[in-house]
């Protein structure tokens, strides 16, 4: 630090040195400063008086300085040396002035930082006290209120059951709870501005253990010089409500008479039998009001800004339609998605295991809990325009549940796409295009292009070419932690087009790039039985997978 202070005062020392030079030398005209000093003794006396006063002021300033830390002992010794009149030259005096200024600046900076920290701490404590006051004023029963306080005091955590119990399955739980304020009173979504809390739930999954409940998280272990794989978790996730859901959002397939009839019946049942607050799309509310004016209790939204308020309010989502309705419902949430209960009223129904005829029994079981769910991963994608020159020109993120497709559009030229995985070159796609799919979308466009069918809870990104002009270009499955970048090279003969779950089609010019990675917000869909059972049933019923006549037993046999 002493050397740094010396650097700060270098310019002042140079000025003092030039002053000493003038006292002992003459200028180009032969008039020396020393002679002029002798010829003007009054000026000389005033300069000496000023110097003495400055030196005294510096001494008083250093005496008043409070040492900042034990590491600044050399500065204290320096001030002591000044008090003992060991440093009295003009240059040293100027140097000490610089040191004193640096000390003062350092002390002021520390005081300013401490003041800012105190102010932020005061704001934090004030905000925390306000939130606690709101919780105490909220109309909650005593048990729910105590649960509320406990969740605020403790962050979401992993819970492993205690050892000593001999059961087949152990449960690892993640607790999720939010206390969220209603929207503005003028908003159509919120009829009042009271503090409401979203229904909390916890997720747990089973682990097939040997004779204890300890959940083994390691993929591999190294004990006694042997490398072994750990016991696999079944990863069958179960959702258990900690507080009863109050707000339900219903999405329906448009222009379907059977869906419209069921929606009228379901909305009335949820309101009258279950006492739930029902939210629907503006189109559906108009259909309900045309059916009867008694549906004025149904709530909706008016613009995109109010759609962003859905997640803080909605506890459960119900879809009436096919897989496309589930995709539409998931696209309405740009972040976390509430649990979805999909009813099959479409064509294939890979993601819609529930039958509409038993909707009362299904919803009774869902609202009571616990229920098995499938966590379906999503991709987050964004376009970087002219990647090679302008990294900062990035468009907004898009979330897809099935796939993002890059194709050649209406042009007859081959698509030319350079593909990178974590900045490592993968290949150059020359063909009709490329599909980057989630495992939930493995039974959609990727399957039609020759990709494999993958269980939806397998974390990964499917890399499937569309009609590649190559006999050796086979599809890939990449791990979920990688980032894939697809770029249109500058020497490409044509542009490309990209679509997200079949919507939001955009053009990619030469130099543009599409960047995709796994999104942190999965879509949880309720299972009729459990995840694997529902997946196998969907490919059997929807695709008639490996369906053929059984070989006749009547014929020649091995002897």
Automatic annotation (TrEMBL):
Signal peptide: none annotated. It holds the Pfam family NAD_kinase_C. The keyword DNA-binding does not apply. The keyword Mitochondrion does not apply. Keywords: Kinase, NAD, NADP, Transferase. SUPFAM superfamilies: NAD kinase/diacylglycerol kinase-like. HAMAP family: NAD_kinase (MF_00361). Belongs to the NAD kinase family. This is NAD(H) kinase 1.
């Amino acid at each position: 630090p002493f050397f740094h202070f010396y650097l700060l005062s270098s310019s002042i020392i140079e000025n003092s040195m030039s002053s000493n030079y003038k006292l002992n030398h003459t200028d180009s005209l032969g008039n020396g400063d020393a002679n002029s000093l002798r010829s003007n003794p009054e000026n000389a006396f005033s300069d000496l008086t000023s110097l003495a006063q400055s030196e005294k002021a510096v001494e008083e300033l250093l005496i008043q300085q409070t040492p900042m830390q034990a590491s600044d002992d050399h500065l204290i010794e320096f001030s002591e040396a000044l008090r003992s009149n060991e440093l009295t030259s003009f240059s040293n005096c100027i140097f000490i002035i610089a040191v004193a200024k640096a000390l003062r600046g350092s002390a002021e900076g520390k005081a300013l930082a401490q003041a800012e920290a105190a102010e932020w701490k005061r704001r934090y404590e004030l905000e925390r006290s306000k939130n606690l006051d709101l919780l105490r004023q909220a109309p909650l029963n005593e048990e729910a209120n105590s649960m509320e306080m406990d969740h605020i005091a403790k962050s979401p955590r992993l819970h492993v059951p205690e050892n000593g119990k001999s059961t087949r399955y152990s449960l690892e739980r993640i607790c999720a709870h939010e206390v969220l304020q209603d929207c503005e009173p003028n908003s159509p979504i919120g009829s009042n501005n009271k503090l409401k809390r979203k229904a909390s739930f916890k997720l747990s999954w089973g682990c097939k253990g040997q004779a204890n409940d300890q959940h083994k998280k390691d993929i591999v272990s190294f004990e006694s010089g042997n490398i072994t794989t750990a016991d696999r978790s079944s990863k069958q996730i179960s959702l258990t409500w900690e507080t009863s859901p109050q707000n339900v959002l219903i999405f329906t397939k448009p222009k379907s008479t059977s869906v419209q009839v069921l929606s009228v019946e379901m909305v009335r049942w949820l309101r009258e039998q279950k006492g739930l607050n029902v939210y629907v799309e503006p189109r559906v509310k108009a259909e309900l009001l045309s059916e009867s004016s008694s549906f004025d209790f149904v709530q909706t939204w008016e613009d995109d800004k109010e759609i962003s308020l859905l997640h803080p309010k909605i506890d459960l989502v119900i879809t009436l339609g096919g897989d496309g309705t589930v995709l539409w419902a998931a696209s309405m949430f740009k972040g976390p998605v509430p649990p979805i209960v999909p009813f099959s009223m479409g064509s294939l129904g890979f993601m819609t295991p529930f039958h509409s005829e038993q909707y009362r029994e299904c919803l009774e079981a869902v609202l009571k809990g616990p229920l098995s769910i499938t966590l379906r991963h999503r991709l987050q994608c964004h376009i970087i325009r002219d990647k090679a020159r302008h990294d900062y020109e990035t468009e907004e993120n898009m979330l897809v549940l099935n796939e993002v497709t890059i194709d050649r559009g209406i042009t007859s030229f081959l698509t030319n796409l350079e593909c990178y995985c974590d900045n490592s070159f993968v290949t150059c796609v020359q063909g009709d295009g490329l599909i980057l799919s989630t495992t939930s979308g493995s039974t959609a466009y990727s399957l039609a292009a020759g990709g494999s069918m993958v269980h939806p809870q397998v974390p990964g990104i499917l890399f499937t070419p569309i009609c590649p002009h190559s006999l050796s270009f086979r599809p890939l499955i990449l791990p979920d932690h990688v980032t894939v970048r697809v770029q249109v090279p500058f020497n490409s003969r044509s542009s490309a087009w990209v679509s997200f779950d079949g919507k939001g089609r955009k053009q990619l010019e030469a130099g543009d790039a599409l960047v995709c990675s796994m999104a942190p917000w999965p879509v949880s869909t309720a299972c009729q039985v459990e995840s694997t059972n529902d997946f196998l049933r969907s490919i059997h019923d929807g695709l008639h997978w490996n369906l053929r006549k059984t070989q006749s037993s009547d014929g020649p046999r091995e002897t």
